[in-house]
Amino acid sequence: MNLSSNLPPENAPKLLCNSPFNEAEWKQLNKYEHFLNADYSKRVELLKKRLEATIDSFLWSERVQKLEPKIREICESSLLHKAQFEPIGMDQFLAADSGKNNYFSI
């Protein structure tokens, strides 16, 4: 079943990359892919460090210090703490569209 055929024309995605690429363009696309993956990976690490710093500053309170083991246990088991960046592939990069759900533009 083709889902796009069920969409009204105004809601159909308009792909950003819809023509063949020459060798130089493929090299540029590979650079973009590498840049985005490196940038997103650094952002995830930064968010994790900010979370840890926030938790540490929260635990400075004497009132909360007695709850530290429980708080650390909750944080260790949280999905945010375990978050890892999943690199995007060229297929995802080429599937980017110009719609409102697009997270980046070229």
Q: How would you characterize this protein structure?
A:
- This protein is mainly alpha-helical.
- It has a domain at 28-94.
- Helix content is 52%, strand content 0%.
- It has 4 helices and no strands.
- The chain has helices at residues 23-58, 62-65, 68-77, 90-94.
- The chain is elongated.
- The protein starts with 22 loop residues before the first helix and ends in a 12-residue tail after the last helix.
- The relative contact order is 0.18.
- Residues 102-106 have low confidence and may be disordered.
Search tags:
4 helices, elongated, disordered C terminus, 106 residues
Strand and helix layout:
Elements: H1 23-58, H2 62-65, H3 68-77, H4 90-94
